[in-house]
């Protein structure tokens, strides 16, 4: 039986149908319906009272965030992320300036940011890779000193806490993806999280064509999401602590099965970290080993993903400065199957295949 690299959790059908019945009764399908409003309120409570705007997806969230913070010119960013992080910058007419990553967390190396700042720099867009936090305190200090805006791509970071706060509460804006493959999902969706009510109003207008009724305030796009997606979120949100606990157990099992092998795992030394166990990536000693294992698993219908490859400073349509750490890690990293319902026997089977292909 095929094993996917990830698998979307589906709540009990009767619970989702209960929400659908309400939608049918009201006939209110989109345009800031009551389920969207409820989900935003519940997310705000989950995220320490932050302002939350539910979006159509995480990429639109990034684009609107850049627009709302009026970023122009150069934006310092990471080369080790999903491609949307870079393309959102390009889409908004800005220039990504790549700064290499840390060797443990694979997040942007805060010690290298200041050297990349120029008179054209207006902000920093960093990714909490696999849910591990960037050095948010150092980045905040740098941003204040140079009058820069900060966006965090928190697509992997839902449920993570650091320094006693939700990781998504840091920066001028954090964005999140609620895609079906994420720890918490709304089938498709995303969010913009911020702590400024005026900024939240601006984001709301941007995602709603820039007008309220017949009053037009600014330019805008359609970044709204529907009642159907909000219903899925309302089903899944209370289950997040259980998801995290289940994933923690899987990580322990994976580590046992892979113990003693020449593999690297991303990790954080932050003592205050409350982690969400979003993914299970491993880094092999060589790219050749990675391909051997990937091919061997694929031959047994076990799907993996080179997450992330390539290093984004090497994209064919936009290149940046060399980032040797990111380029090296991206060639050797492989995300193994990881989701709550993964069975112990599957992890054992994966471990056996990996061991037999590293001899």
TrEMBL record:
SUPFAM superfamilies xref list: PLP-dependent transferases
Leader sequence segment: none
GO-annotated biological processes: polysaccharide biosynthetic process
Modified residues (N6-(pyridoxal phosphate)lysine): 182
Active site location: 182
Keywords: Aminotransferase, Pyridoxal phosphate, Transferase
InterPro entries reported in the protein's UniProt record: DegT/StrS_aminotransferase (IPR000653), PyrdxlP-dep_Trfase (IPR015424), PyrdxlP-dep_Trfase_major (IPR015421)
Cross-referenced Pfam families: DegT_DnrJ_EryC1
Keyword check for Repeat: no
An example Gene Ontology molecular-function term: transaminase activity
UniProt similarity note: Belongs to the DegT/DnrJ/EryC1 family.
Protein's recorded name: Aminotransferase DegT
